[in-house]
Amino acid sequence: QVQLTESGGGLVQAGGSLRLSCAASGRTFSSRAMGWFRQALGKEREFVAAMSRGGTFTNYLDSVKGRFTISRDNTKNTMYLQMDSLKPEDTAVYYCAANVESVFELRPPTKWGAYDSWGQGTRVTVSS
Prior knowledge:
The protein is mostly beta strands. About 0% of the residues lie in helices and about 50% in strands. The termini are far apart.
């Protein structure tokens, strides 16, 4: 497993932007697909975005396509989620997650059960 720490959450008005960061410990970051999930109050955790280990492949939740952009810097062991045109329905605790190590550049998984390391979460609140 790898230790993950999210940052960058906060309160923003609808239409605004936030950039979340996920810093990973250790030396295995570049061999893991990474993902962002979120959980709104009273709802189940849902997939938001994911990126393959080398950045070739991405997956997005349909409702965030065109508004959110996932990226990663393997030299800094850090993943990012740029969130633009935020909506009140984006309000949630956002978690970053790391997939198991792999030598292959594969399309990243969208199921939370495929990830074995999780951060503590960062809260995003979008006011209307």
